[in-house]
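2024-03-11 09:14:02 INFO receiving multi-entity request
2024-03-11 09:14:02 INFO entity count = four
2024-03-11 09:14:03 INFO echoing inputs for audit
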Amino acid sequence: MVNGPGKITINDVAKAAGVSKGTVDRVLHDRGEVSKKSREKILKVIDELGYKPNVYASLLASQKKHTIVCVIPEYSEGDFWSLTAKGLFEASEAAQRYGVVVEVMTYDQYDVDSFRAACGKVLDAGPSGVVIAPMFRLETLAFVKDLVSRGIPYVYIDSKLEDDGYLAYFGMPMYQSGYLCADILTDGRNVRKVYIVRIERDKKGHSDPTVMRRTGFMDYMTEHYPSAHIVNVFIDPKNADAVYARLDEAFAADADAPKMLVMFNSRIHLVADYLRERGMAGCRVVGFDVLERNLSALRSGHVQALIAQHSDRQAAAAVNALVDSLILGSPVPKKDNYTQMDILNRYNCEYYM
Amino acid sequence: MVNGPGKITINDVAKAAGVSKGTVDRVLHDRGEVSKKSREKILKVIDELGYKPNVYASLLASQKKHTIVCVIPEYSEGDFWSLTAKGLFEASEAAQRYGVVVEVMTYDQYDVDSFRAACGKVLDAGPSGVVIAPMFRLETLAFVKDLVSRGIPYVYIDSKLEDDGYLAYFGMPMYQSGYLCADILTDGRNVRKVYIVRIERDKKGHSDPTVMRRTGFMDYMTEHYPSAHIVNVFIDPKNADAVYARLDEAFAADADAPKMLVMFNSRIHLVADYLRERGMAGCRVVGFDVLERNLSALRSGHVQALIAQHSDRQAAAAVNALVDSLILGSPVPKKDNYTQMDILNRYNCEYYM
DNA sequence: CGAAATTCCGTGAACGTTCACGGAATAATT
DNA sequence: AATTATTCCGTGAACGTTCACGGAATTTCG
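2024-03-11 09:21:47 INFO inference complete, emitting structure
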């Protein structure tokens, strides 16, 4: 019941207060031009009658055009960010019902300048709210400072920064995901050596989003397997041959012993491909995120477990939080929303999406 | 990136189709009194223009009051059904925005008559839609027949029956959850014996909701561990002392060997309590559902894993599906919605809710 | 063929807000 | 006191639907 049982309208309030609905509306929206006396009277009447504005009528009448702009890394079919994009599009559909337009703006996560450019375009678009998946610390901080100064609310997804002007955050607890990963990988077994496959990337201006995850992983290992040998292998994901060469090289010492392998980003499928190619069985392999390629590695048995998050839901939740606060004026219930970490294996992965 | 605001109104459609908005409205709501020709033309135009009705205008104009009644087993703080109830209340809040009232009606899951009574009250309330968590097969079938005859849509949660008049179903794939459970319990270990702890319940008129789960479990075992010995232990959950006695008795043969234990309902905490009481360590224990008591058993290490479902989200999804179909007239996208099976251990359980 | 029945459709008044516009009342200034 | 500024407020037209009403067009039938 939108209006409560009594169905009290703005007209009822106006009548009871001896003014017109226009005046009531003015105090309702703090639009000024109302004498102190009327104002107080109206407020009193509103309270007494328990008047609750009708959201539909309000939304209908105020043809406000809200735009929410989302800034995320470029994506292509099947990769990590495409899932986030999917969530954004879903939320966009729902938001349309409220007359809210959702725009997605992408940037090259390996190119600071493209991020700066994207931010500029966002500000030009004059959005009512912003969703941002940050990859560059300094530039993001500068950007949100701009947003704050313009009174534009923003919410972080995926990871957040240490400022606290954000309306909300939706993402995975990174440190804990690394800790959990180690537990799943080792799983009470004997552990002599663990390979961490990492990506060589252009480090300048770039903050590795998985660093906390690695920290969590390492902490678990030093707590539970202090004598285990941790080997880092760096690969260039863009060059398949080089990947294989690197792994061959790393495994040369004990070629056919079963291994423990882990990656902290979404590319574990690279490792799975390698293992299949080389016919290596019996390895214990754990990775992150539900890309289609990772799922098939899970099904084929080259990966034992994936730790996943519903980044589509996170994205949608971010948009919804913004819509709620923008349109309905409802306060955001929780600022930091750590989404659950899902453990996927071959038996439950089919029901994940 | 995403469509602009729904600029297209019913008037635009009317003009483009060469009719009046009244006629368009009639086809939008299947209110009849429209010639086949106009109808088709209008439908075509709607599709071409991508017309989306403005929910708010619609809600404003049609001062309809919808009520959704949910029939679920009685619950109390912290038990399985309280989570479902929580989801219902959350959805209720959202539904209020659309002027939809959500009512929850409970019945004693061990008493057919109370279920019958609840159904009667539901019908009296004259709801626009019903959410139902069925426990009694025959009575539920009779009930939904009544609903169908009155044209009241209903959706199943938790489990469903073999009729197919339901609008949607939200629940866990029970068979697979048992299969998964066996995989997690055994986990590549040697398995000689597994204890299944079950509940003695008054069987009359009662269909055990976990039977499919048990079947899945057993299938896994015969496939992977054909020689394993499966022992069923029956307990009465209401009598703690008797539970302990029964377990003592069952374990008498090999008292202090580490055991594998499993329960297919939400009461694994009973087993955990027993193990703590008896100081038995090193057992492998797997159960279902995220009751607070189960979570603390997980934290304390007496339970290794829980298989969980977001029954709150299922409940909310059920209400939302009904709201969508009632208010927005949008068809339900999927009839059978099998929600994901979450694997919880001590490292990821804190982020589950 | 004409009247009655039936089918189909347009009209316009709600629904409860928002907000621009213009005017009344009051205060400030000359 | 007359004029001008300022403050305050009422009016009414949107916003995009829904749906009752009445009438036009078409069909049916004697």
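2024-03-11 09:21:48 INFO post-check: Residues 174-308 of chain A form a domain with the Rossmann fold fold (CATH 3.40.50.2300).
2024-03-11 09:21:48 INFO post-check: The two ends of chain A are 34 Å apart (CA to CA).
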